[in-house]
Amino acid sequence: MQINQYIDHTVLKPTTTLADIEKLCHEARTYRFAAVCVPPPFVKKSKELLQGSTVKTATVIGFPFGYSAIEAKLAEVLLALVDGADELDIVINLIALKNNDWTYLANEINHLFPIIKEKGKTIKIIIESGVLTDEEIIKCCELYGAAGIDYLKTSTGYAEHGASVHAVELFRRHLPEHVQIKASGGIRDYAFARQLIEAGATRLGCSAGVAIVKGEVSDTAY
């Protein structure tokens, strides 16, 4: 398995430095990862550092808690697109979900989706599966699958529970075939990464990408 092709090499800590980004992009080019995932202020620089490679630049919207207003997320999306982001990982409003306000969630995706797709960019929706019930996950699969997103993503990596094989399998059973799955959060070694891929994940968001490729164990996953 060429696991490097599945990896979004990631650094999203609030103390991220330019040196962190330079190292991340160098490693992404060296190991030919699918993408880097970086904080919004570093999108433009990452694009420059990755110029001439096949590595995509991804960033996050509404990260990590998802409860910023739709208008705020829209502003973040527009800036990310101006800066050249290829892929946008958007955290849903979990407060709306936990209060059973599915109308709000539908309105949120309906405002953000057309702008991103008009530019031909990839949209990944983060639902924080580790803090949801199976019923809530299934509802998310139905809502966002119908919306036509590119990926449903398990986690931000900042909740108490990250990616799980169970969540990925549940996603795969309830998502339309064309919607892919990104697993993220706590992926530190090759064995777990492979289990997630075998369960149906086609992308892995992790800061331990180099260790995973080498089949090593790392405690640095975000």
How many β strands by DSSP? Answer: 8
For this structure, the CATH topology is TIM Barrel
Biggest beta sheet attributes: 8 strands, parallel, barrel
Q: Please, what is the CATH homologous superfamily?
A: Aldolase class I
Order of the strands making up the biggest sheet? 1-2-3-4-5-6-7-8
Low-confidence stretches: 217-222
Please give a quick description of this structure.
This protein has 222 residues and is of the alpha/beta class. 43% of the residues lie in helices and 16% in strands.
Structure description:
Belongs to the DeoC/FbaB aldolase family. DeoC type 1 subfamily. It catalyses: 2-deoxy-D-ribose 5-phosphate = D-glyceraldehyde 3-phosphate + acetaldehyde. The structure is a single chain. With 222 residues, this protein is an alpha/beta fold. The protein has a single domain (3-213), classed as TIM Barrel, CATH 3.20.20. Helices cover 43% and strands 16% of the residues. The chain is built from nine helices and eight strands. The chain is globular, with a radius of gyration of 16 Å.
Question: Which characteristics define this entry?
Answer:
222 residues, alpha/beta, TIM Barrel, 8-stranded parallel β-barrel, 9 helices, 8 strands, disordered C terminus, cytoplasm
Topology, pairings included?
Blueprint: E1 7-10, H1 18-31, E2 35-38, H2 43-49, E3 56-61, H3 70-83, E4 87-91, H4 94-98, H5 102-118, E5 122-126, H6 134-147, E6 151-153, H7 165-174, E7 180-184, H8 190-199, E8 203-206, H9 209-213
Parallel strand pairs: 1-2, 1-8, 2-3, 3-4, 4-5, 5-6, 6-7, 7-8
Helix pairs in contact: 3-5, 6-7
InterPro entries: Aldolase_TIM, DeoC, DeoC/FbaB/LacD_aldolase, DeoC_typeI
GO molecular function: deoxyribose-phosphate aldolase activity
GO biological process, one term: 2-deoxyribose 1-phosphate catabolic process
